[in-house]
Automatic annotation (TrEMBL):
CDD domains named in the record: GST_C_Omega_like (cd03190)
SUPFAM superfamilies: GST C-terminal domain-like (SSF47616), Thioredoxin-like (SSF52833)
Classification of source organism: Bacteria, Bacillati, Actinomycetota, Actinomycetes, Kitasatosporales
InterPro entries per the UniProt record, alphabetical: Glutathione-S-Trfase_C-like (IPR010987), Glutathione-S-Trfase_C_sf (IPR036282), Glutathione_S-Trfase (IPR040079), GST_Omega-like_C (IPR047047), GST_Omega/GSH (IPR016639), Thioredoxin-like_sf (IPR036249)
All copies of domain GST C-terminal, residue ranges: 152-276
PROSITE patterns: GST_CTER
Disordered: annotated segments: 309-335
Protein name, entry field: Glutathione S-transferase C-terminal domain-containing protein
Residue ranges the record marks as coiled coil: none
Length: 335
C-alpha cells in the first residue's frame, strides 16, 4: 500500500462527500438523536477532531460512535475491535461497505471520520472540517448543559484564518513532509511546518488559547497534530528539527489541553503508533513499531493557567467518559 510517489510532492485527495446533517434537514438528513453513527479511528487525527468535539459538547447519546481498528489495508478501515469483526449496529466488517451502499461506483478515499445513516447503512458525509462545525452549530438541541461554544459567531473569522494556516502548514504539513517523493518537496513542507510552529509559539506565549480566552475549534484542530508529533511525526515523517518536548510553549500548551477533560481522555497512543508504522509500509517496510517515546511528561504541570482564560468559558467540563468509550491506557501507557 503506497503513499509516496517518487519525484512528486504529496497532494491530499479532498473530494469529500459534502452532504450535511442539519437542524432543518435541507440536504435530506435532519439532525435526529440515535439515527446516525459516527465512525472513527482513534489513530486518525482528522477523526480525533470529531471525537474530541463530540465529547466536549456531550453528544455521546445523540450520536453513537463506532471505533475502527488502527490498521487498515487498501480495502479500508475494519471493525476488528468488535466481536466477530463486525460493527454491532451497522453489521458491516469494512467501512467501505457503507460507502458503496451510498454509491456502488464510489472511487474516492474511504476515510474517517464518516457519519453513517443507520436506517439505510449509507455514508452521509466524510467532510471532516464541516463535521465538527456542524456538531457545534446544527446539533445544539442535544448539547449537554454547560457545553462550550467552540465556534462563537464573534470569533469565527479569526478562527477560520487560524485554521486555514494551521491546516496548510501543520495538520497537512506533516503529511506533505512524510509523504514527499522528492527532496525539494520535503524541504518545502519541512520549512513551512516549523516556520508555522514558531509563529504559533509566539502567539501562544501571550495567550492560553489560540483565539479568545476559551477553547475553540482552532485548539481542537491543532491539538490532534501536536499530540501525535513526537510519537510519529518527528521520526516517521522526518519532522525532526525539534521534538514537541523541545518547543517549550507548544509543549506546555499541548499538555494543558491534554489534561483538560475531553482531550487526553480520548487519546490512544497505542493505536496511533500502530497505525502509522504498520500501514505506511513504503515508509516503514519492516513494520517495526517503536517502543518510545516516554509519554509520562504529558501529565506534568503545564503552568498555563497563569495566562488567564477559562477552558469552557461560561460552561463546564464534560463529565466522566461514558461506559464503553474509555480508552485502554488512555494516557499512554504512560509508565
Amino acid at each position: 500500500m503506497g503513499y509516496v510517489t517518487a519525484g512528486q510532492g504529496f497532494s491530499r485527495d479532498s473530494r469529500y462527500l459534502t452532504t450535511r446533517i442539519t437542524a432543518d434537514g435541507r440536504d435530506g438528513y435532519p439532525v435526529e438523536p440515535g439515527r446516525y453513527r459516527l465512525v472513527v479511528s482513534r489513530a486518525c487525527p482528522w477523526a480525533s477532531r470529531a471525537v474530541v468535539v463530540r465529547r466536549l459538547l456531550g453528544l455521546e447519546e445523540a450520536l453513537p460512535m463506532a471505533v475502527a481498528g488502527p490498521v487498515h489495508d487498501e480495502r479500508s478501515w475494519t471493525f476488528d475491535l468488535d466481536p466477530g469483526g463486525r460493527d454491532p449496529v451497522l453489521g458491516i466488517k469494512r467501512l467501505r461497505e457503507a460507502y458503496f451502499a451510498r454509491d456502488p461506483g464510489y472511487d474516492r478515499g474511504i476515510t474517517v471520520p464518516a457519519i453513517v445513516d443507520v436506517p439505510t447503512g449509507r455514508v452521509v458525509t466524510n467532510d471532516f472540517p464541516q463535521i465538527t462545525l456542524d456538531l457545534s452549530l446544527e446539533w445544539t438541541a442535544y448539547h449537554r448543559p454547560g457545553a462550550p461554544a467552540l465556534y462563537p459567531p464573534e470569533l469565527r473569522a479569526e478562527i477560520d484564518g487560524v485554521n486555514e494556516a494551521v491546516y496548510r502548514d501543520v495538520n497537512n504539513g506533516v503529511y506533505r513532509a512524510g509523504f514527499a517523493g522528492s527532496q525539494e518537496a520535503y524541504a518545502e513542507a519541512y520549512r513551512s511546518l516549523f516556520d508555522r510552529l514558531e509563529r504559533l509559539s509566539e502567539r501562544l506565549e501571550r495567550s492560553r488559547y489560540l483565539v479568545g480566552d476559551t477553547i475553540t475549534e482552532a485548539d481542537v484542530r491543532l491539538f490532534t497534530t501536536l499530540v501525535r508529533f513526537d510519537a510519529v511525526y518527528h521520526g516517521h515523517f522526518k519532522c525532526n528539527r525539534r521534538k514537541l518536548t523541545e518547543m517549550p510553549v507548544l509543549w506546555a500548551y499541548a499538555r494543558d489541553l491534554f489534561q483538560t477533560p475531553g482531550f487526553g481522555d480520548t487519546v490512544d497512543f497505542v493505536h496511533i503508533k500502530r497505525h502509522y508504522h504498520l500501514v505506511h509500509t513504503d515508509i516503514n517496510p519492516t513494520g517495526i513499531v517503536p517502543a518510545g517515546p516516554d509519554l509520562r511528561g504529558w501529565l506534568a504541570p503545564h503552568g498555563r493557567a497563569g495566562l488567564g482564560g477559562r477552558p469552557f468559558g461560561d460552561g463546564t467540563a464534560p463529565g466522566p467518559v461514558p461506559p464503553g468509550e474509555a480508552v485502554p491506557y488512555a494516557h499512554g501507557p504512560l509508565g
